[in-house]
Amino acid sequence: MQVAAILFGAVFTVATATALGTLLLGKACGDWPVRFVLGSGALSFLVFLLAASGLVYPAAFAILGVAAIVASQPWNRWRDGPGVRCWPKPSARNILLFVIFLVYFYIYFLRALAPEVSPDGATYHLGLTARYLREHGFHTITWNLYASLSQGMEMLFLFAFAFGRHSAAALVHLAFLVALVWQMGIWGVRHGMAWVGVCGAALVALSPMVGVDASSAYNDVALAAVAFTLFCLLEHWAEEGTARLLPAIGVLAGFGYALKYTGWVAVAYAIGFVAWKSRRARAVAVVAACAFLLVAPWLVKNWMWMHNPLAPFFNSYFPNPYVTIDFEEDYKSYFRMYDLASRWQIPLAATVRGTLGGVLGPVFMLAPLGLAALRKPLGRQLWLAALVFGANYFSNIGARFLIPPLPFVALAMAMALTTLPGMALAVVVLHAVLCWPAVVGKLVPAGSWRLTLTPWRDAFHLRDPGRYYKNHLALYPAVELIERATPPGSTVFTFKAIPDAYTSRRILVDYESAANQVAARIFQSAAIGTDLPNGRLRFAFPSRKLRAIRVNQTASGTDVWSINELRIFSSGHELPREAAWRLTAHPYPWSIQDAFDNSPVTFWRSGEAIHPGMFVQVDFGGMRQADQVVLEGPTDQYGIRLELEGETGDGMWQRLADRPMVSDGAPYLGFRRAAAEEMKRRGIDYILSFQDEVWSEDIRRNRDLWGVTAVGAAGGATLYRLP
Q: Which candidate, 204, 221, 229, places its Cα nearest to that of 407?
């Protein structure tokens, strides 16, 4: 029954998408891949509307699917013009490749049908999908930056997940690989280069990175299918001039953005191509409007909930309390280089060594041969598309980010290889051998994401899936522990992203939001002594009446300014904080109150690297006598340069002190308990600690000082309940 539900969820989703694509295209195109990929964009949009309306129920999806399938039936008798059902003539080489295709797709099918264990699929891709189904739609999620990404593929996953859960979503993604390969073959036939289309499709389909991505709940292969479908539709429109294709082109382009932020280039490509070929404002407007229809929902959702339409990026243009600029810069900086010493290492890393999260296959080291295709107009079109859809690559050099331009590169390679008799077949067969899972396992490091052979009993769920999860998801025991030891509605904090697609609890991962990062710093300060507020910066000045004080930061550097407490004194007595005080800070004003709450464990941080113009300001709401200002914070802020100003009531600011005196404060007692209570106050119920984390020993040995209770342990993880 479980396999039947999985297959139904996947097939029903594909059928619904195909039906919607048929309704959009009418007689304009009868190719199944085009109708499916285009209809997927329409289905994704409709599921978004249901989620935004709180109508995410299997019944609602069933009604939508049946209505679309029934409505599309009158159009199914129409077929496209010449060549859509033309396939390469049977021959020994074609039969050989067909057998290779079948073998590899069987491997992919078993992996997709098996329990979902991919790194991102088992965490945020399906973790968010499962939450939307439980909550029957969207709810504000500010604790997980991945919830801010465009989630066009997750909307398709949600449709399938409602009927077949995790594996149904993976099978839907696999359908995009089928559509992509099918279209590459059709493209070759239409241009009188059937062997080029077949060989190019084989180079893509057999790639280990493509196979493992397509058989997982990811979105990279789907984006590649959208890119190639858009390429073919634009080509078809340029040849036939069919006006009905323009809305479809716009929908496809917008769906590229909805699938993945890096797919924004699809919108630029479609608009630019139509403008160049038609030179008619109306045609461009139709494409742009239809593209914007699919782009706008994600912009609006982020604007409403994150105050940033492009969250979690571009925070310097759209400041918000949820993602800090310094985190964004660190995040982007890592993905621009990973652990490579030079970008010259990328070709080997992506094709052979697997150190960029996977391997495309050694044969793609021959990609420069494809430049020979530039001699022909079709070759130039392929390379232009490859450049467009690979334009974002250096923002994240992971191997899977090369998948969208890969079909175009593969076809260009095939065009070059087929000029030599037998060469293309030899390269494809070599590719098939080198990409076999057992061979790839010997080429790439053990930690690299790669395809493995899935036992058919596991794929068809004939054995306990828990065993499969434990063998393929290292942190799955932690999820079982959380489900077993915590009540529904609990919030668990962790420093490792666990497969939360298999838990209904709210999981806070340390780096996934600004609030999570604050909680992490609070915990680490108590556990390992980092960022303790042992430093004192003291400004002293002649006693005078002031309406406001301002601490200015004047230096530039890489430090991030932090203040645990700001205290103001008069004649040796601290001024009591009053409700009339108005607090502000630039940048990151949202947490400035944490520097005035009389708690040593909380703090304000600037959220970005220091630069002139930063300040913290207190307006007393009246005149107050003062002669001293003390800042308490970490001692390692060596780059900051501070000065103190005061406002005397006439609206004029005067400098009170050029620089502070530096000293050390007395150590705080009870810091661990205070940190645990503060995390509890912030809505965290449990801490999940792993034995390989540097702070695990402290919390284990000092549970009484923390005030926590160990409620269970599994797989190297211990779960603590906060006081």
A: 204
The total of other beta-carbon atoms located within 10 Å of residue 544's CB is: 15
The CA–CA distances, whole Å, from 220 to 163, 209, 224, 253 equal: 23, 10, 6, 15
Question: Residue 266: which residues within 8 A CB-CB, separation 6 or more?
Answer: 226, 227, 230, 252, 253, 254, 255, 256, 257, 389
Diameter of the chain measured on Cα atoms: 97
CB atoms within 10 A of CB 372: 15
**pLDDT of 279 higher than 90:** no
CA 687 to CA 414: how far, in whole Å? 54
Q: Which of 671, 720, 715 is nearest to 700 (CA)?
A: 720
The pTM assigned to this predicted structure is 0.96
Nearest to 642 by CA among 545, 563, 574, 547: 563
How far is the C-alpha of 240 from the C-alpha of 250, rounded, in Å?
A: 17
DSSP string, 509-574: ETTSSHHHHHHHHHHHHHHH-TT-S-EEEEEEEEEEEEEEEEEEE---SS---EESEEEEEETTEE
In tens, the pLDDT along 550-572 reads 999 999 999 999 999 999 999 99
3-state secondary structure at position 493? strand
* pLDDT tens column, 480-510: 999 999 999 999 999 999 999 999 999 999 9
In the numeric block, which tokens belong to residue 575? 């001024």
H/E stretch holding 643: strand 642-647
The DSSP H or E segment spanning 276 is helix 264-278
Burial 306-345 (b: 16+ CB within 10 A, else e): bebbbbbbebeebbbbbbbbbbbeebeeeeeebeeeeeeb
**For residue 83, what pLDDT is reported?**
40
| Whether 638 contacts 559, CB under 8 Å | yes
Mean of the per-residue pLDDT values of the chain: 95
pLDDT of residue 496: 97
What is the structure's pLDDT at 77? 60
CB 606 within 8 A of CB 588: yes
| SS3 at position 231 | helix
Nearest C-alpha neighbor of 187 from the set 137, 213, 225, 147: 225
List the structure tokens of 722: 């906060």
3-state secondary structure of 664: strand
End-to-end, the C-alpha distance of the chain in Å comes to 44
Q: How far is CA 233 from the centre of its chain?
A: 28
- Round to whole Å and give the CA distance between 280 and 22: 27
Domain map (residue ranges) of the chain: 2-311+324-443, 479-527+674-721, 533-664
Q: Give the dihedral of Cα atoms 32, 33, 37, 42; nearest 10 deg.
A: -10
pLDDT of residue 88: 60
Q: Give the separation between CA 337 and CA 332, rounded to whole angstroms.
A: 9
- Residues recorded for the chain: 723
